[in-house]
Design brief:
The complex is a heterodimer of chains A (about 325) and B (about 325). Chain A is built from ten helices and 15 strands. Chain A is of the alpha/beta class and about 325 residues long. Chain A has two domains: about 110 residues, NAD(P)-binding Rossmann-like Domain (Rossmann fold, 3-Layer(aba) Sandwich); about 180 residues, Dihydrodipicolinate Reductase, domain 2 (2-Layer Sandwich), CATH 3.30.360.10. The N and C termini of chain A lie far apart (about 40 Å). Chain B folds into two domains: about 120 residues, 3-Layer(aba) Sandwich (Rossmann fold); about 180 residues, Dihydrodipicolinate Reductase, domain 2 (2-Layer Sandwich), CATH 3.30.360. Chain B is globular, with a radius of gyration of 20 Å. The chains are: A alpha/beta (about 325), B alpha/beta (about 325). Chains A and B meet through strand 7, strand 8, strand 9 and strand 10 of A and strand 7, strand 8, strand 9 and strand 10 of B.
């Protein structure tokens, strides 16, 4: 199977590239990028061809693409790729508008290609284990969930609203909302949010927020998507979900498999993670779905759309000062 | 020498009683307790006298200060009785179940020329005090977001009064008012409150609440309270700023863990963590209040502070009930 990567704008392209190189039966065929320098550098790094911008890659005989452009360019690339009959793994958030996300889903459906949203956290063994514990009913009925996905300001195009579509709330809401939807099997019905820019001066996007959610099945939840980790914080950030059920509680801290390194080199303490690499588990899953000609991927474009919808509702709530209903 | 009369000797009342017995120049003059057997046992334990009513205490004992540790909805009546008898008042948090009661308590103490202190004890906990001091020193730069967690298993009590939303106001009024008061101390007044809770969902002794606060100074705070854990009690505090992150995880800051091998006649080998202090926060708080009576100084936490914390709690309750964000008018 031949797979290409469109754009190294998003840093996750590197871990996907590494994953492609380690999966048997996969040929990491080529790289497209609208920035020749960036594309060529990546091509040199991974020993593959740089072909120019994405139309050149679509003309090639490849089976699947991983799309890591800036958020706002996902729709253009994905729709063109669907028309060229390529299966697609698209970085999150799926798009910056619901209309774009919907058009991407329709284009892929019409061409009969897979569209998978890159929600790697679902594939982490600790998360898989939590899903099983919940399916076994170990905590009874879920009543409440508390999520966090904090991080540091990624800078670059992430803080250019024309390219990113939003700041911390868009960047860091979708992973955890996806987990919460998956865990509950229910959709977010109502979103309230406080959103602001408080950590970084003169940033054109938001860098912190707090979402309060209610699901269609009555589960209540909160989520913190802030870029609130200082430069000397021991790690980049976190993904946590705590679940309150009728029979008990279940606490998930995805990156807890770490040891502490106290180092005079860095001048502070760092978390040294020894857990599994979820990005390569995600890519392996996508490749398997393509290879087995599955009718739909493990995590769909629709899943990406639902998570995006919550993030966009959060912005709407913060603007209006009122809770926003979905659906 | 202060002579203190204690009204209500349940969980918190007995902690206060112990505090008084450890102080020099303080005499625990009597314990008023509706449960006679329990009251007599407590009186014996703390070497004082049991009285069935506050009136009986006033008739037979000389007291300067009344410390009220009865359930919240009963505070106002006892405060009024004590104030009218000319006694200074220390009253357990939450101050009252309604703002009208809270204001009446402030008024009656003013009218009768006695001091009123509300035991918002979190300001006397060394870890929270340290956090406050670090903030004052600018240790994390400008604060952006704050997160607190408090809670554990559903509390058991006399008359199971915590299970009555009417009487206790749920954990939003009874428990996370601690965090509301602490956050007001650190960040000033709250502009807007939004909350979700499990109240009214026909759950048997399970409650959980998420409260979203926006402060006048822009800080966004997430205050979580739970009575939904199978066991235990935990507190957490995280303050994130432009130049640092301060994290407090209560159960990871215990210097002692005693773990015993299982034996016949002894239950499981559960590790029991302990964090001993030279003086517990309750004693520090009570000593501070008595010192304020002596000197006439303003306390670290005033009755007005306690009133404002209650206002946040009640706004959160209202938001959870109505589904609407509640804007708080700024007073003062």
């Amino acid at each position: 199977m031949k797979v290409g990567i469109v754009s190294f704008a998003h840093m996750h392209a590197h871990s996907y590239a590494n994953a492609l190189q380690s999966i048997k039966g996969v040929e990491f065929a080529a790289i497209a990028d609208d920035l020749p320098e960036r594309g060529q550098a990546a091509a040199d790094q991974y020993g593959v061809r740089y072909v120019g911008d994405y139309p050149a890659l679509l003309a090639e005989d490849i089976d699947a693409l991983i799309v890591c452009t800036e958020n706002a360019r996902h729709a253009e690339v994905v729709i063109a790729a669907a028309k060229a009959n390529k299966h697609i793994l698209c970085e999150k958030p799926i798009a910056t508008t619901l209309a774009d996300a919907q058009a991407m889903i329709v284009a892929c459906r019409e061409s009969g290609v897979l569209l998978q949203t890159a929600f790697p956290v679902r594939f982490h063994p600790a998360v898989q284990r939590v899903k099983r514990l919940l399916e076994q009913g170990r905590v009874g009925r879920i009543l409440a969930m508390r999520g966090t996905n904090r991080g540091q300001n990624p800078g670059g195009w992430f803080v250019d609203p024309a390219l990113s579509g939003g700041g911390a709330v868009l960047d860091h809401t979708v992973h955890v909302v996806d987990l919460m939807r998956w865990f509950t099997g229910s959709e977010v019905r109502e979103v309230y949010a406080e959103i602001d820019t408080r950590f970084h001066d003169s940033l054109a996007v938001d860098d912190c927020g707090l979402l309060t959610l209610e699901f269609a099945n009555g589960v209540i939840a909160s989520h913190d998507p802030s870029w609130s980790r200082c430069a000397s914080y021991p790690t980049w950030g976190d993904v946590t979900v705590e679940i309150i059920g009728t029979e008990g509680t279940l606490s998930l801290d995805v990156f807890r498999q770490h040891m502490l390194l106290h180092s005079d080199l860095s001048g502070h303490t760092t978390h040294e993670n020894w857990g599994d690499d979820m990005d390569s588990l995600l890519v392996a899953d996508f490749i398997r779905s393509v290879a087995e000609r599955k009718a739909s991927p493990s995590v769909t474009g629709e899943d990406g759309l639902r998570a995006l919808e919550v993030a966009l509702a959060a912005y709407e709530s913060a603007t209006s000062g009122q809770p926003v209903r979905i659906g | 020498m202060f002579r203190v009369g204690l009204v209500g000797c349940g969980t918190i009342g007995s902690v206060h009683a112990q505090g008084y017995t450890r102080m020099e120049d303080v005499e625990l003059a009597g314990i008023v307790e509706v449960r006679e057997d329990h009251g007599r046992a407590m009186a014996q334990l703390f070497h004082t006298t049991w009285y069935p009513t506050i009136e009986a205490l006033f008739e037979e004992a000389e007291v300067d200060v009344i410390d009220i540790c009865v359930p919240t909805y009963l505070h106002r009546g006892y405060v009024e009785t004590a104030a009218r008898a000319g006694k200074h008042v220390i009253c357990e948090k939450p101050m009252a179940r309604t703002l009208a009661d809270a204001q009446a308590m402030i008024d009656v103490c003013e009218e009768n020329g006695v001091r009123l202190f509300i035991a918002q004890v979190l300001r006397f906990f060394p870890q929270y005090r340290k956090a406050y001091e670090l903030l004052q020193a600018g240790a994390v730069g400008q604060v952006g977001t704050v997160r607190t967690t408090r809670g554990g298993v559903f509390p058991t009590s006399w008359n199971d009064w915590y299970a009555s939303a009417e009487n206790s106001g749920t954990l939003i009024v009874d428990m996370i008012i601690h965090d509301f008061d602490f956050l007001r101390w650190c960040f000033g007044d709250v502009r807007r409150v939004y909350a979700k809770s499990l109240r009214g969902r026909d759950l048997n002794r399970l409650d959980h609440a998420f409260v979203s606060l926006r402060f006048e100074n822009g800080v966004i705070a997430h205050v979580e309270g739970t009575w939904a854990y199978p066991s235990g009690f935990q507190t957490r505090l995280e303050i994130a700023g432009t130049g640092g992150v301060l994290e407090h995880v209560g159960d990871e800051e215990m210097p002692i863990h005693l773990s015993l091998r299982e034996r016949i006649g002894r239950s499981e080998g559960v590790a029991v963590p302990e964090s001993p202090l030279a003086k517990d926060p309750y004693q520090l708080e009570l000593e501070h209040f008595l010192a304020c009576i002596q000197s006439g100084a303003e306390p670290i936490v005033t009755a007005r502070d306690a009133y404002e914390a209650l206002r946040i709690s009640l706004a959160a309750l209202e938001s959870a009930a109505t589904g609407r964000p509640i804007e708080l008018e700024v007073r003062s």
